[in-house]
Task: structure prediction
Amino acid sequence: MAGPKTPPTYKRNGANFPSSPHSIRINLYTLAIAITAFCFIVYLIGRGSISASPATIPCIPLKITSTTAISNNSSASTSTQVDFSASQGDDDGVKIYSPCDIKYSEYTPCEDPQRSLKFKRDRLIYRERHCPDKSQLLKCRIPAPHGYKKPFKWPKSRDLAWYANVPHKELTVEKAVQNWIRKGDKFRFPGGGTMFPNGADDYVDDIDKLINLKDGSIRTAIDTGCGVASWGAYLLSRDILAMSFAPRDTHEAQVQFALERGVPALIGVLASKRLPYPSRAFDMAHCSRCLFLGTRKVHGAYLMEVDRVLRPGGYWILSGPPIRWRKYFKGWERTREDLNGEQTRIEEDDIAIWQKPCNHFQCKEQKKKLMCPAQDPDRAWYTELETCVTPLPEVSSEEEVAGGQLEKWPKRLHAVPPRISSGTVNEVTAESFEKDSQLWQKRVSYYKSVDNKFNQPGRYRNLLDMNAYLGGFAAAWVDDPVWVMNVVPVEAEVNTLGVIYERGLVGTYQSW
Result:
């Protein structure tokens, strides 16, 4: 028979002491508490090092504190504090946001049609961005439209969208003969348009005969007055990223159609303010059936803005003519002779293309007088258009590209952008650029490891980086079928949006 078990012992000051069951339980409890505390500390450290870990968003109720920090995706940029108000609240200070009425399902605060009608119609000012003050802010969450369905996966979404998701049929009637869009229980986008009756794909092929769209020299484009963004949609297959924009007007939800299709787009209009992009941003600008309104001075301001956002050596494509001018000329406040002459000139060719000079080295003194005085060419948030030429960076020879030569895509994505290598971006060096890129490769890899939905091709198409810094987050997704809207807040200490465009990515300014 076995003898009595020897009780466990522990050492203190070199001597063995028996350990009671009570003391063992105490040690186990202490160990459990220590492990829990250690895990909690590790969790906090993890949250501090990765700023935007995936989370499940509850539907109702949503609770947030009254002062919330905007998502900060860059270790080198500062967070912005925004104060929210809510109609309900708990004793602990947590605010509860209820859903808005369904009539607000497509509410866009700064593009509210009712508020816009209060502004001047001259130069389409009423269609520009007009943001509400704090007293007019909605204190509820925007609901989805009735019957909203999960969008089609990319690339199927390029050609299809559920009617319930964008419940507007006006374009199917008004643009029926132009083959923009067809309606059933779902919308179909055949790729037609006013100036490409044979489809946007053939139209892009026609452009490719005049400009090489295959060698990587063209990566970013802007489409002014994009309709449902078919031009941008068909450029994607050529590895060209187009930023499409159109106003919120009688053609309801043009930009919403574009986003539903998975195509980059913003609500916007070329009116009295600069477009929300830096100078020298786009390799190519496009306008189909442009109807420039008003006087020659207004015309000049529009063209100067297109010139500002085009990179040196970039292209501006215009296809026309102004259709049915005889019916609408009175509303354009221009004479029959003026419009007839313009139409005759444009009709000589269906597509006209201009190339911007690579520098201003040969500009005569007379032309230099037409250039804008000292200014920040990248400033574009509520900045007035000017009827002067935005000067390019100085060069030392006729062959040099102002601002620096860009690499061809895709090498351009990871090459040090000229704005950084030239030292024009404060506190950003080639070393810090490389470090930021490597950091975001690791972060995005981590996101995919904790949420396998990110690894399902086509499940997600449109991503938003609210504080993009150097575009490292977007660059890390480049091999996935997604695109990222890179936002540089206007409050940021360093304006880096020009760097993002030099990498071959797209984005905009925004004040959160």
The chain has 15 helices and 19 strands. Confidence is low (pLDDT under 50) at residues 1-26, 42-88. Residues 21-49 form the longest helix (29 residues).
